[in-house]
Known about the structure:
This protein is an alpha+beta fold.
Amino acid sequence: MQRLYDFVNNSLTDPETGWNMGSFGAIAEFHHVGDEPPPELPADLTQATTRGAIRIEQLEAVRPLAYETLSAAPHRWAQGISFCLPTGNAAMSNRKVLTELGVDTRAIRAQDQDAVIFDMGLGQHQVDFCIRTSDHELLEVLRQNEGRSLFDADNPAMTAIMKTHPHRVALTRIGRVEVYQKIGGPDTAGKSPEGPHTHLLPKLLRTGRTHSANTPIPEGWVPCGAIHPESPVSGRMGEDREFDRDSFDRFQQLLQTWGSEGHLEIKNAVWQALKKRQSPDEFEAPSTRLGRSSVRNALRQWYRMHGDDDVLRRWCEAFDRNPGEAEPEFPGH
């Protein structure tokens, strides 16, 4: 418990580290932006900027799970640590209609503690995804449509929300993320703003999943949030960067502490085979989707550590794509 607390506390001072809370289809992200002052030592596991804020409120019973997932770009991968709770412990209100919750006295910034907060009614297991506002016109529209689904075709509340850009607040059993910037949409040329932002994707919400199938969450556990330490292969905006061996090694240590043993075993088996210059025909491929993902990540990481050669190309032909043929500045991440 103390080790996790110290890790979270230290990570809150790292401007290269990103955070999120939410569910599969409704997520609030907190990031530092390059023109902001460096983050200060957090008080009570809290950080706030002019664009957004995060507060970790409890870590008891949290199970950290370090993982690596595939990128759309064949020379990259993504990494993170999910903060998981047992399914029952993670449960929030699961409201399915717009609901006024009153004044948000627990807002992270004092200046927001008189604003009114509404649960958007997304019906998500581990997050109450909310909006917060002091705008009188928006409050009137929201109150007139309380008790209705925001996705009703004739409900004007969603249009009013998109027009006025209220704060978004993701409430979970481990804490909250607040986003003060505009909602990505017509007013932002369809792009999410740099730094803290939210994603609300009805198609993913309708799946009823608590998380992506690409994230190896154990049965009986639910991710309430995640931390994304500095990537060794991509920058804050998802751009390519020169391979950073130091940040790579730091995350490999976190995998040793909080990662899946199966993932590490598969990666090490691939690396040992490449070191011995074995043929991919001699390797027994994993039967699971996550196992095959581990093989592909092992190949991508070997390429970034050691470069290209004929043996690696044969392995990539068998299990992945050739990372040496990736377009520079590939946008996927």
